[in-house]
Amino acid sequence: MNHFSIRTLCGVSALVLICSSVTVAKAQTATSRIVSAANIFLSALDERQRQSALFAFDDEKQRVRWSNLPVSFAPRAGVSLKELNAAQRSAALALVSSALSRRGFEKVEQIMEGDEVNKIKEGNNPIFGKDLYYLSILGKPSEKDPWMLQFGGHHLALNITIAGERGVLTPTLTGAQPALYTSNGKTVRPLGQESDKAFALLNALDENQRKQAILSYRLADLVLGPGQDGKTIQPEGLKASAMNDRQRAMLLDLISEWAGIIHESAAVARMAELKADINDTWFAWSGPTTATPGLNITAYYRIQGPHLVIEYAPQRLGGDPSMHVHTMYRDPTNDYGRGIATK
Amino acid sequence: MNTRFVAAAAIFLSLGAGAFAHRLDEYLQATILSVENDRIEVSMRLIPGVAVSSIVLAGIDTNGDGVISEAEQRTYAERVLRDLSIMVDGKSTSPTLVSQKFPAIEEIKEGLGEIQIQFTVDLAPGGPERRIVFENHHHNEISAYLVNCLVPRDPSIRILSQNRNESQSFYQLDYAQAGGSSDPSTLKGWSTVRGSMGAVGFASIFRLGMRHIAGGTDHLLFLLALLLPAPLLALGSRWVGFAGARRSLLQILKVVTAFTIGHSITLALAALGLVRVSTHPIEVLIAISILVSAIHALRPLFPGREALIAAFFGLIHGLAFAATLEELGLGRWERVAGILAFNLGIETMQLIAVAAIMPSLVLLSRLRSYSVIRIGGALFAGVASVGWIVERLLHVDYSVDVLVDALAHHAVWIAGGLFLISLACSLKPKLLNTQPPPSRCPGEPRRFARKLLV
Hints:
- The complex is a heterodimer.
- Chain A contains 11 helices and 14 strands.
- By secondary structure, chain A is α+β, with helices and mostly antiparallel strands.
- Chain A folds into 2 domains: 2-164, no CATH class; 189-341, no CATH class.
- By secondary structure, chain B is an alpha+beta fold.
- Chain B has 2 domains: 22-198, no CATH class; 206-453, no CATH class.
- Helices cover 53% and strands 18% of the residues of chain B.
- Chain B contains 15 helices and 12 strands.
- Chain B has helices at 2-18, 53-58, 70-82, 105-109, 184-198, 202-215, 217-227, 245-271, 279-298, 306-327, 332-364, 370-394, 400-408, 411-426, 446-453, and strands at 27-35, 39-48, 84-88, 91-92, 96-101, 115-122, 129-136, 143-149, 157-164, 170-177, 232-235, 238-242.
- Chain B has a 5-stranded mixed beta sheet, with helices on one face. A 5-stranded antiparallel beta sheet of chain B has the order 4-3-7-10-9.
- In chain B, α8 (245-271) runs parallel beside α10 (306-327), α8 runs antiparallel to α11 (332-364) and α9 (279-298) packs antiparallel against α12.
- Chain B starts with a helix and ends with a helix.
- Classes of the chains: A alpha+beta, B alpha+beta.
């Protein structure tokens, strides 16, 4: 009884704190909001949980401990939603959502929900589920000094570096299988925009541009997936300097599907940087140039610029490449905020 | 054989439904090249899918003790390097192994293991424009390749172009190195002039032709199945005794030549763009051609007209060769030289294969027990061809390639063993099929009896 009431108290106070933090959010900067959400989350944990959630900011092993694989194949560290009670879990999700835009958090929820669909479809297979996502904090949540927030599991790896008012989302992996499912009677495509906007851009290119954009070879997978940090490959395809204004706008809009996952003020800064780079940004496509309306494309594409690598790689695994995709979002000059965290 | 197919199919069906995470039926080989001033640093990541891991592991854990020893790691890494062919400015160059890193054997079995191999290729001083050709033949049949180069750290090195075939097993990198003439416009003009045929290189297309036959087991299987009964005489609906060494050799020569003429015609027509056929029906027809020659090896379908059949199906195989040549993306005039190089490569490899197997065939076909080899070979080709037909028609994957190639991988040993057996057997005269064929078969065509007397 006693135990129960303490739990309830914790839960209620956490909720009150979250609500109050939301109400004062308007007056706060994004970073202070994230820092207070992080502190609320950490204080909601018990000592053992807190120990497992916290890492040193320069812990290189933890930084790269992410993958597209389910957690049983590629174990993550940190604290999983599964081992949290309801109040702790909502504090954890409040922290994640504080660092993301509304659209970004929705995408994350849809990816996690997709894993729940897998679990149900696979007869309660314990390797899947929306609670098998791990949260970790590298360094001390601070409004001045750099620190990192990681959240991920199967088909998801968010690596968010906060340094003062700046926020960096690279490297981040998103993926989806199933890439289409129904939830509460609604059709959900977690990475549907990533597919549809790219296909629209391909179709907006003229014959000559398509010749340059479409690569003559197959790409079986991500080139710069998990573990491939710090590499800048030679760009290929169609350079956006050879696009017209409308096509460039479409390309930027496509890029925003990744760049816009992070909270609004960081996203605005990031989009400004990418827009300044746009003429040095390349678009390359490999695979089918047709798609079934309402389904994801089955082609690979890559967007690469001086501060950007985006890869979209359909996976044959499961039989239908339109139902399974991995994507990668990187900034070769600033993965894990290395470019800003040292300054 | 059949049970192996069923087992493979079962694995695929069960994985197809349930496997979400790991690589499945291909061996992913991702290579990244980094061009430095005096060398190229190359790193390879090799990730065997769960369904092909046993094939890959057989070549790693060679003593099969379930542990990948240091020696086995090194041996395997060296084998991978041997399976590459690297050309620097048209000269074959051998790589130097730097390091290798292996995952636990269990991870490889689950399709989660990543093997890492690092090596360097030393560059002798060269001109202002250089060309690296990187070809990967390691486990060609089961692999998916990714090849890229990094943006050079050295600002005096500038990447000009990257060219690949469709599967990325062939990769060509052109780059300019400042020091000589570095005006981009003159460089570009020079490159186009020199580039046209040199784009891929006569020698490398020749080798591509050889590899195509060596790796494209379906072409060889067709030819070998057709050659199986070549030393024999047909009698009605049966194959009977040895036709004599001279006649056998002549027959083999005729079949091989006819096949060559057939595929040369269509290869030339298709490569010059005079004929256009989509590859998919061709692939199906090739599988059917193997089935036909396999049945013919069991029971004579077209005795005496093997050469004609070889020429006819040669026409079809030629269209498939053209598709391979197409992948290189050569221009129209480069193609003329390309066709020649490619065809010569095909011919050379074909002759090597035939030369390796012909003595054994002629020797063995004098034995009564030759029918075991003939029927065994025909059944193998038949089963494989049916597998291919089903795969190619229904777009399913029973990994027929994987199974056939597993056998083809030991082709040298099989051919050698066959030759030794044939030598040993031919020393024992009582095994020889000296009995004349039964002469009173119902419906026996006279001409065969007459031929026997000649």
